[in-house]
Specification:
Ald_DH_N, oxidoreductase, Aldehyde_DH_Superfamily, 489 residues, alpha/beta
């Protein structure tokens, strides 16, 4: 049975370009495949450069009227969109698992997580406020307004194909901006289904436009979006090298940028930690989405007094993870996204073992010519192993031992990345010391799960610019305007 027949609402399966609420079935298409089976899921319309230019024109035309609405009016549409996403959560999860591979339960959780940004920013739309400031002149008054940036663009990744869209689109349209979304080539169906629900929620023509494209065409479309003087803001989630390219391409038009780039998260377990809680947090942080998250742990550092106990407990738990097709109810880990991804994982494991690391669990593909990789644990990993300096983006845990607090903080900070970090300790003085010294935008303390709609998501150093989610997320899409009113007697 194909995907269309499995859906409760088959009309959510869209395969066209969406501009000004109209679906375009271009003759040029690209294939979307299921990473669990390699089978064809759908052929999706290939956006052209002309489509991108028309989307910019459409978004620009829609901007004045959308920006002129009250925040409450925009909130109503966002709220209806949220309700529709929740109502269709099962179908959206099924679409996501089929094109991306993650277990169905994880996909359903992502749908609800993604919907939370629509709900949150529906409320924040009504709270955009300026300020009246104390004046240094007796005959003048000083005010600050917050106004929408203008037309925006978002380039989103395949690992969270729904939530990364809502986390960008919701604050943009809540602020009064219009937006163009270029979803990842591997997962356009989730984006297009989400857009269909936005139309049903009453989103006006041109406020949101979707440009699906394969990798080669995506480069061309990205160039159009970066070069356009009409687009005033660009949001991107993806690798640091691509983020640098987009920064350079956007320089000529001096756009506002929100970049959520690569991570290389450390996970530190001190000898006073609750060991069972640390193991559970490590499982959550490392193996969710087959290790394909920007905030998942790449390097584990465990204090020497509890090192052996942690490795034993953790590896035994890892061996119990069930790998398979995400549509199977017993599956806890699905496939990785493509052959390139699995080759990098294999390289990192082989390199670490060649340099003295011990393979404690997993370490190989489950079956040749598939994208399923065993949940893997490497112990005694040396610092010169590739996995200790490069993001793996796969289900491999690399564990090293440490002796002292300052030693492990220095090791954790020895990277250009600064997105997420984690540590476990029950010493409150240590918790404050370590949390303040870790050079990361987000720090999970005694937990391996940190993402939600109310907290600011983002990194420091070369992990990006700006923050998404939370009360701060809408500021990315607002400009401050200073008004000086004179002649007051």
């Amino acid at each position: 049975m194909d995907l269309l027949q499995k859906l409760n609402a088959p009309d959510l399966l869209k395969t066209g370009v969406m501009i000004a609420n109209q679906w375009r079935a271009n003759a040029d298409t690209f294939d979307v495949t299921n990473p669990a089976s390699g089978s064809l899921v759908a052929r999706v319309a290939q956006s052209s450069v002309q489509d991108a230019e028309q989307a910019i024109t459409s978004a620009n035309a829609a901007f004045p009227a959308w920006a002129a609405l009250t925040g409450k009016a925009r909130a109503g549409i966002l709220r209806r969109w949220y309700e529709l996403v929740v109502a269709h959560a099962d179908d959206l999860a099924l679409i996501m698992t089929t094109e991306q591979g993650k277990p169905l339960a994880e996909a359903k959780a992502e749908v609800i997580y993604g919907a939370s940004f629509l709900e949150w920013f529906a409320e924040e739309a009504k709270r955009v406020s300026g300020d009246v400031m104390a004046s240094t002149w007796t005959d003048k008054r000083t005010l600050v307004l917050k106004q929408p940036v203008g037309v925006c663009a978002a380039i989103t990744p395949w690992n969270f194909p729904l939530a990364m869209i809502t986390r960008k689109v919701a604050p943009a349209i809540a602020a009064g901006c219009t937006i163009i979304v270029k979803p990842a080539e591997q997962t356009p169906l989730s984006a297009l289904a989400l857009a269909e629900l936005a139309i049903r929620a009453g989103m006006p023509e041109g406020v949101m436009n979707i440009l699906p494209a394969d990798s080669q065409r995506s480069v061309e479309i990205g160039t159009v979006l970066c070069d356009s003087p009409v687009i005033r803001h660009l949001s991107f989630t993806g690798s640091t090298p691509v983020g640098r390219i987009l920064m350079r391409q956007s320089a000529s038009t001096v756009k506002k940028l929100a970049l959520e780039l690569g991570g290389h998260a450390p996970f530190i377990v001190f000898d006073d930690a609750d060991l069972d809680a640390a193991v559970e947090g490590a499982l959550q942080s490392k193996y969710r989405n087959a290790g394909q998250t920007c905030v998942c742990t790449n390097r584990f550092y465990v204090q020497e007094n509890i090192y052996d106990a942690f490795v034993e407990k953790f590896s035994e738990a890892v061996k119990r993870i069930r790998v398979g097709d995400g549509l199977a109810p017993e599956t806890q880990q699905g496939p990785v996204i493509d052959e390139q991804a699995i080759c990098k994982i294999e390289l990192h494991v082989a390199d670490a073992v060649s340099k003295g690391a011990k393979l404690v669990a997993g370490g190989r593909r489950i079956q040749a010519d598939t994208l399923f990789f065993e949940p893997t644990v490497l112990a005694d990993v040396p610092e010169d192993a590739l996995i200790m300096s490069e993001e793996t983006f796969g289900p491999v845990a690399a564990i090293a031992r440490f002796s002292g607090e300052q030693q492990v903080i220095a090791a954790a900070n020895h990277t250009d990345s600064g997105l997420a970090s984690y540590f476990f300790s029950r010493d409150m003085t240590r918790i404050w010391r370590v949390a303040e010294q870790l050079e990361y935008g987000m720090v999970g303390i005694n937990t391996g799960l940190i993402s939600n709609e109310v907290a600011p998501f983002g990194g420091v150093k070369q992990s990006g610019l700006g923050r998404e989610g939370s009360k701060y997320g809408i500021d990315e899409y607002l400009e401050m305007k200073y008004l000086c009113i004179g002649g007051i007697r």
